[in-house]
Amino acid sequence: MDAQDVNGRTDVAALMERILYEVKRVVVGQDRFLERVLVAMLAQGHLLVEGVPGLAKTLTVKTLAQTIRGSFKRIQFTPDLVPADLVGTRVYNQKTGDFATSLGPVFAHLLLADEINRAPAKVQSALLEVMQERQVTIAGQTHKVPEPFLVMATQNPIETEGTYPLPEAQVDRFMMKVLVDYPTDQEEYVIVERITGPAIDVMPVATTEQLYALQQECRQVYVDPALIQYAVKLVSATRTPAKHGMNDLARFIEFGASPRATIGLVEGARAMALLRGRRYALAQDMTDIAADVLRHRVVPTYEAMSEGVSSDQIVGHILSKTAVPDKPLATHAQPAAPVA
Question: What family does the Swiss-Prot or TrEMBL record give for this protein (predicted)?
């Protein structure tokens, strides 16, 4: 597929629209979730998804991999899992007398880590390391994971028995935490029709090379300094709310967000702008993803939990009390034409 427009520049919105169309031929509803997956893919981030079983989380990632001709692997996390089950290990060959490297399932374009909180901390750390470094070292040899590389880890909010909750420092590695809810009655009717009807063949509409090029293009999206300052203020307010005139929040926040949150807000705003067909980010792009970027990084106090105040409510209050910068000029997004 040729993803070039008349100006010779990649028509990101059109390409992403075709990818989304193919995915939605299989997946019903979940528009917000799908949009966050595409944002994470463009921004080279990773997703932590919380939702009850049966909400098409696996189906979404698998279908997406088919549309971009990418490889897809799924790991079911269990208490007896060891790091070698993820990253791979050295295997002895009796015929040759040599050791060969057997790479694990993390070597895929799209990786689904199902119920990540069911595995012990050592296994979670092995996955989070490859997420950050995008490489694995086995017996002194470094092996890079394929590009693009997206990890989507899921958590079940219902069951807590036999789980190992992710420490805040590890959760911070995920760019966004997305909450997936039940479908509406109308959507569920369509889901049953599609699942019980003839199988739908998904058509590949892009390549991994095109997607990698889009990721590089996403880094070129213009972000106004005022918008970066807005991101800094939002994150700073989660750490020292009194400094930003939100004294009532101080007793509800145990720990605020790290600088990774500020980076995630800026990169996410870039990706959202690109999805919407712009080469410059607006404040709306940032506010739309702010809750997803911040909710897992704001740790409420025991007082907040006792009063039923969630991290989402804290983030919502911060967003409502922080002044949004003026719309940056579109002309700033492009370099000035050379003077003849």
Answer: Belongs to the MoxR family.
